[in-house]
Design the sequence.
């Protein structure tokens, strides 16, 4: 069972209280951009076996969107963090590095 | 390879079954192969089989990290049908379905293909219109299907409750030549035939890296050491993201767990497959008498081969509404497989950014039915280096070009 903690209201809940929103920190492209960039943004995914950065919504709670770092093999959650950011805060990155040495996510690690 | 036959059974019975051969060899890997297929699921084995049968390429290794057929091929609910909406899908799935008809003879292995008929229930006005449209599309594609009314549904499925409180049954899309097969036997039958052609099936050997030089694949690293090849086929379903990562590219798909469960065995009570997309559940009865039930996919990507528990309750709730007798059934087993889902719910069969490296993936929740067709098309792709007519539309360029093969309705319920 997947247990997440909402960084806004601080409530811990099991997965049915939340709604998964897919891969996080996508670089968005709008009208007029190259086809290949648009494809990357809309369809290409990291889909890692391991550390995954993702979006969630506290659907049956405060309703806010937030980010979480989670292992896709063990469902261990390394931490959840604000939606208003382009990468996880340092303490979450450090926690991931301690547990999954050598992990990386596109252009940061 | 000694053929299986009634005579062979009699002969072996007379000598206390001491003379059966192993169905396939378990060799150590050679240094190099013309073609390496990663993944000994149905699609990987079928690809190897048709490489040999249709193109005479037999210096082939199929590399499997676990046991052959132990991925989704051995975990699925075995529904076989070809009533998809778009022309490229109908062609591919109908090719596969028609190959299933003669597979037991072709492989000299009983895959228990049972064309007992598949109904997809229409339980809203939108579904009625959607399935009528599919029936018309199928008529143009030469795939016999028919939209039937509730009385006919009740005739075919006496245990169904037509007048559920939320979603009464308004009709259904009926494919009489759809049905089920024995999933393990499909993998075993192909494996035996591949081994007989001299191909090496290497089990308990995980691919851990993809070797390349000047943009072309040269081999793979495995837990049994490096193995060279001229061409590489990645056929690893839910693990495609992982293999693509090793090869250095990304894919338009994500992996999620999909579950199934079976009940205790009961007397025969339903001799067709019924899918209820609106309430989200489907069911058929196995030859052993168990009710085989398909569950839901997780909402978030993962590689757990287990799935979230709440889906079991949701699935059973949907089925109790459709088949009230299910409320009295005990469930025996539940399991999960990792399925690779694309944006348009259609598979990817095509080239990759890496030279001489090809992929067959993205079957998501419904690739068992496609095994012989997918293998046929992928063999052609690997042998010629270019897609043939069956797979031409299924390359991943379609996501750049916006040329989707939208099957979100046909694949509405995980199957
Ligand atoms: C619960 C469930 C129900 C389903 N029901 C249906 C249904 O009713 N009808 C239908 O048509 N489809 C159904 N499907 C989908 C179907 O099972 C799959 O689409 C199909 O089996 C995919 O076949 P495959 O050969 O591509 O993959 P798999 O059978 O998964 O084979 C891939 C193989 O690759 C191996 N592998 C992975 N990584 C590596 C590595 N690094 N090195 C070596 N080997 C590796 C795996 O161990 C595995 O054996 C269902 C799936 C599930 C999970
Ligand atoms: Zn909250």
Sequence:
């Amino acid at each position: 069972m997947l247990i997440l903690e909402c960084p806004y209201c601080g409530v811990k809940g099991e997965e049915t209280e939340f709604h998964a929103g897919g891969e996080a920190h996508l670089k968005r492209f709008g009208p007029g951009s190259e086809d290949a960039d648009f494809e990357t943004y809309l369809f290409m995914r990291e889909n890692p076996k391991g550390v995954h950065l993702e979006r969630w919504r506290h659907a049956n709670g405060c309703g806010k969107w937030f980010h979480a770092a989670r292992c896709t093999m063990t469902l261990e959650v390394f931490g959840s963090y604000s939606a208003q950011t382009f990468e996880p805060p340092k303490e979450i990155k450090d926690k991931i590095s301690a547990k999954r040495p050598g992990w990386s996510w596109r252009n940061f690690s | 390879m000694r053929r299986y036959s009634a005579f062979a059974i009699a002969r072996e019975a007379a000598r206390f079954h001491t003379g059966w051969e192993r169905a396939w060899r378990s060799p150590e890997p050679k240094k190099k192969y013309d073609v390496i297929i990663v993944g000994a699921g149905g699609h990987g084995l079928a690809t190897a089989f048709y490489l040999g049968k249709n193109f005479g390429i037999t210096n082939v290794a199929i590399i499997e990290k676990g046991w052959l057929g132990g991925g989704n091929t051995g975990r699925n609910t075995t529904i076989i049908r070809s009533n998809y909406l778009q022309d490229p899908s109908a062609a591919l799935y109908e090719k596969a379905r028609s190959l299933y008809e003669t597979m037991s003879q072709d492989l000299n292995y009983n895959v228990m293909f049972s064309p007992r008929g598949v109904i997809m229930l229409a339980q809203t006005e939108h579904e009625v219109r959607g399935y009528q449209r599919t029936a018309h599309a199928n008529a143009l594609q030469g795939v016999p299907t028919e939209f039937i009314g509730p009385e006919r549904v009740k005739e075919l499925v006496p245990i169904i409750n037509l007048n559920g409180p939320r979603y009464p049954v308004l009709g259904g899309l009926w494919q009489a030549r759809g049905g089920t097969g024995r999933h393990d036997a499909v993998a075993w039958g192909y494996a035996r035939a591949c081994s007989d052609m001299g191909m090496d099936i290497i089990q308990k050997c995980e691919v851990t890296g993809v070797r390349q030089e000047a943009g072309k694949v040269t081999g793979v690293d495995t837990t049994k050491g490096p193995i060279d090849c001229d061409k590489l086929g990645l056929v690893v379903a839910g693990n495609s993201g992982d293999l693509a990562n090793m090869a250095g590219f990304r894919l338009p798909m994500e992996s999620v767990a999909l579950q199934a469960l079976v009940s205790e065995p009961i007397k025969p009570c339903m001799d067709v497959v019924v899918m209820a997309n609106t309430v989200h559940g489907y069911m058929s009865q196995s030859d052993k008498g168990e009710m085989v039930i398909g569950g839901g996919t997780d909402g978030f990507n993962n590689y757990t081969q287990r799935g979230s528990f709440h889906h079991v309750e949701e699935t059973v709730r949907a089925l109790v509404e459709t088949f009230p007798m299910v409320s009295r059934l005990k469930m025996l087993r539940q399991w999960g497989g990792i399925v690779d889902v694309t944006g348009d719910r259609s598979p990817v069969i095509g080239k990759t950014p890496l030279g001489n490296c090809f992929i067959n993936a993205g079957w998501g929740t419904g690739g068992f039915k496609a095994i012989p067709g997918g293998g046929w098309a992928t063999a052609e792709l690997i042998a010629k280096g270019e897609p043939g007519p069956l797979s031409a539309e299924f390359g991943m360029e379609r996501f750049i070009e916006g040329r989707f093969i939208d099957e979100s309705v046909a694949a509405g319920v995980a199957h």
